[in-house]
Design a protein that fits this description.
α4 packs across α5 and α5 runs antiparallel to α9. With 291 residues, the protein is of the alpha/beta class. It has an eight-stranded mixed sheet, sandwiched between helices. The chain has eleven helices and eight strands. The two termini are 33 Å apart.
């Protein structure tokens, strides 16, 4: 297939497929900022497992056109059109960090097509009842999310120059995150292969515009457009106990509300350990045993 897919409203989505083209299909929904080339298992691992991994740039990132005002729930139209183009009747879906709520949206709103779903180091809805949304979150993330929620125009004005600078030099983002990284996260980010994938990912995400990142944060802090409690398919929720970017309390809140969910918390892990957990999660998504 072409690496571009056209949506019903005329937008272009940039798509990448890796692994076994005849294998069991898994959509990987990238983090934030992110793109279709974000960290994932090697193609040989996927091929050996019989997995076909499909990733695409969410609107406004990389090679995908912006969808102004999008909600988290709007991901389902884009995933569905990519699946239709690939002639997939059913598929699993996994999202990491900012992609996790989008994976849950697919599970909730495409129940006849999604077989299993996984959400790694994700967030709960901003209006989650009984959850102190900012508790345990790094001050930089608190400031970013709170500004997006209370003053979206000011938030966008601040993020545009930051995004431009990071697009030119992705090392800047890792440097900005460093003070909030645990020792475990630092070791993961220092891994040559993972770091190379992350830098390529950030550069591609922001090469055309800042609006994928801006729209992601606005969507995550606004109404999602679905209720996680409506999810009926099996869901795996994975989190690191020491995560300060997406606190583990968010996954606990989701686990208490999604009927067929299983929560896995790594007591020694933080945010980026999810990259190492991803291969095991993909095994489960294509029918393997519980992680």
């Amino acid at each position: 297939m072409s690496d571009h897919v056209r949506t019903a409203d005329g937008r272009q989505l940039r798509v990448e497929v890796s692994g076994d083209p005849r294998g069991r299909a898994v959509f990987l929904l990238h983090g934030m900022p992110g793109s279709r080339v974000g960290p994932r298992p090697r193609p040989m691992f996927l091929y050996q497992r019989g997995a076909c991994l499909i990733s695409y740039d969410r609107p406004g990132y990389g090679g995908s056109d912006r969808n102004r005002g999008r909600r988290v729930a709007d991901v389902v139209q884009d995933v569905a059109v990519v699946a239709d183009t690939l002639e997939l009747e059913s598929f699993a879906v996994v999202g990491r960090s900012g992609g996790a709520p989008h994976a849950l949206a697919c599970a909730a709103l495409l129940p006849d097509r999604v077989t299993r779903a996984a959400a790694l180091v994700g967030l709960a809805p901003r209006d989650a009842e009984g959850l102190d949304w900012f508790a345990g979150m790094a001050p930089s993330n608190v400031d970013e999310f709170r500004t997006a929620y209370t003053d979206p125009e000011r938030f966008a004005a601040r993020l545009i120059p930051r995004s431009t600078a990071i697009g030119r030099d992705p090392e800047r983002l890792l440097a900005q995150l460093r003070k909030d990284l645990t020792d475990d996260d630092r070791s993961i980010v220092a891994d040559t292969a993972i770091r190379s994938m992350m830098l390529r990912n950030f550069r591609e995400a922001l090469r055309r515009s800042p609006y994928g990142w801006i729209d992601d944060i606005l969507a995550l802090t606004g109404p999602w457009g679905f209720d996680p409690a409506d999810i009926k398919v099996p869901v795996l929720l994975w989190h690191g106990e020491h995560d300060v970017f997406s606190p583990v309390s968010h996954t606990s809140w989701l686990a208490a509300r999604i009927p067929r969910s299983r929560k896995v918390v790594d007591p020694a892990a933080a945010h980026f350990t999810a990259l190492r957990a991803l291969p095991r999660i993909i095994d489960w998504l294509i029918g393997g045993p519980v992680v």
